[in-house]
Amino acid sequence: MSNIDAPQGSVENSWIVEVFHNQNSVNIKIESGQTLRDVSAEILYRAKLADGDYALHEFLCNGQLQRPVHLSEYLLNTTVTLWEERVQRSWLAIDYNNIKEKLKIYEPPPNDSTEQGSLHMYEAKKKWREVQCKLSQDNFTYSKLKVKTNLNLLNYTWYLGCETNLSPPTHHCFTLRCVSPTRDHKDDIFKVFCAADEAEMWRWLYRINYVKFKEPDYRLVRSKRATLQNPNNRNSFILLDSRLPT
Questions:
Q1: Mean pLDDT for each 10-residue chunk of the chain (246 residues)?
Q2: Do the Cβ atoms of 55 and 21 come closer than 8 Å?
Q3: In angstroms, rounded to a whole number, what is the distance separating the alpha carbons of residues 95 and 226?
């Protein structure tokens, strides 16, 4: 099995990134500055998949955290270059695009421009504290011990779930991860929140997703206009026969 704890390798401004699907995987060369939209057709082509309701998902912490990757994301900036030892095993995989439907179900009324309410936030040593949260424009604000903290959501990605060893009060958790931590805050890049129920969790995620991307555009497309690289050119793509991470 190939190493999935880190990218397969890097050459100047490009990375060879392993993408899993079912019991196989393909390695794809991603250039600096490429979005998922730029390589969407190539991923489907190499995985031998036709257009369908597929999305690329990122998994962290042995699969405990999961999120769909938006087509507008610069892949190297928001995924593989951020994989560190502390997030344990991390990988990318093609899976069904069920996130859009979930977000649609919990879409709030058009005239409701903010989300606010109480959530439980992880502190340390398996302790959780109820905090008052508000999402308005680009900011996610939480108040703890009368101190307000603002997170600019343009600098964060969201994930379903949290690490189970944190002992969350419910199973309806989401995690915000800073994609541009400062040197002074590298140990504080994860913010973990827990909602009372599934509907409340998805309402928050709908708002967060809207702030970042406006539309839940996750579906991989094998565009007819896309120029696919020569599959016989092994400098561009390397086919692997490896198993999904366990």
A1: 38 80 90 92 92 92 92 90 74 88 74 80 90 90 89 92 92 92 65 94 90 86 53 34 37
A2: no
A3: 21
Least Cα distance to 197 among 85, 118, 114, 112 occurs for 118
Give which of 134, 123, 130 is closest to 162, Cα–Cα.
123
- CA pseudo-torsion sign 77, 79, 80, 83: positive
Range 76-79, long-range pairs (CB < 8 A, 24+ positions): 76/15, 76/30, 76/32, 76/34, 77/179, 78/157, 78/179, 79/17
Handedness of CA 226, 34, 218, 106 (dihedral sign): negative
d(CA 132, CA 209): 20
Amino acid at position 14, single letter: S
Q: Is the model's pTM score more than 0.70?
A: yes
* CB within 8 Å of 243: residues ≥ 6 apart: 1, 23
Q: Which residues of 104-130 are buried (b: 16+ CB within 10 A; e: fewer)?
A: eebeeeeeeeebeeebbbbeeeeebee
Tokens in use for 155? Answer: 């600098």
Write out the DSSP string of 65-82. Answer: EEEEPPTTSBHHHHTGGG
Contact in structure between 121 and 162 (CB atoms under 8 Å): no
* Alpha carbon distance 98, 76 (integer Å): 24
